[in-house]
UniProtKB/TrEMBL annotation:
UniProt cross-references to Pfam families, sorted A to Z: DUF1440 (PF07274)
Keywords for the protein's UniProt record, in alphabetical order: Membrane, Transmembrane, Transmembrane helix
Protein name per the record: DUF1440 domain-containing protein
InterPro entries, A to Z: DUF1440
Keyword Membrane set for record: yes
Domain of life: Bacteria
Spans through the membrane: 6-29
Length: 171
C-alpha cells in the first residue's frame, strides 16, 4: 500500500533524523578511537569551532546560504551553531527526499538505503568542490573516501530501516 505524500515526508523526516544520529554515533566512535578527547556533547555541538577558519564544510555551506539570502555577515561566534544546524538539516531533509521517493513505490525495502547513501555521499563530492569547499574527489585517498562512504552507508541504511519500521503496517 502506498503512503500519502505527507505521510512519506513525515516518515522521511523522522527516518532522516534517526539516520543522522546513527551516522554521528559512528563518527564520534571513530573520533574517539583516533585519539579524540572531547566528550560527546562537546563534539556533537562543535564546541571547539571558534572561527569560520576552523569550520568544516557544513558550516561553510550554511554560512554562504545565510549570508547570501539575508545579506548579513555572520560573526565567528556563530560558526559552531551553523555547522550543527546545516549538518542536521541536511541529514533530516535528505530523509524527507528519501521518503518521497520510496513512498512512491509499492513497498519500502531496506536495501534502498544503499543507493540513497551513495547518492548523498557522491553529491557532496560534486557540489562541495564546485563551491570551493572540498578538493575534487580524486585528491582524496581511498582510505578517506571509504571512511566517508561507510558513514554515509550507516546513515542511508539506518534511514531506510527507520522508514520501513515507521510504516511497517503499510508495507
Amino acid at each position: 500500500m502506498m503512503v500519502t505524500p505527507l505521510g512519506a515526508v513525515v516518515r522521511g523526516l523522522i527516518a532522516g533524523t534517526v539516520g543522522t544520529v546513527a551516522m554521528d554515533t559512528l563518527l564520534y566512535a571513530e573520533y574517539r578511537r583516533g585519539g579524540g578527547k572531547s566528550g560527546v556533547r562537546r563534539w556533537e555541538f562543535s564546541e571547539d569551532i571558534k572561527t569560520w577558519d576552523d569550520a568544516p564544510a557544513p558550516a561553510q555551506v550554511g554560512r554562504r546560504l545565510f549570508e547570501g539570502m539575508f545579506r548579513h555577515e555572520l560573526p565567528n561566534s556563530r560558526a559552531a551553531l551553523v555547522n550543527n544546524l546545516t549538518h542536521w538539516a541536511f541529514g533530516i531533509l535528505n530523509g524527507a527526499a528519501y521518503g518521497v521517493v520510496v513512498g512512491s513505490v509499492p513497498k519500502a525495502r531496506i536495501w534502498y538505503g544503499v543507493p540513497f547513501a551513495a547518492t548523498v555521499w557522491g553529491t557532496g563530492y560534486v557540489v562541495l568542490p564546485a563551491a570551493g569547499l572540498y578538493s575534487p574527489i580524486w585528491d582524496y585517498s581511498i582510505k578517506v573516501l571509504a571512511k566517508d562512504l561507510t558513514a554515509h552507508l550507516v546513515y542511508g541504511l539506518t534511514t531506510a530501516t527507520a522508514y520501513k519500521v515507521l510504516g511497517s503496517r503499510d508495507d
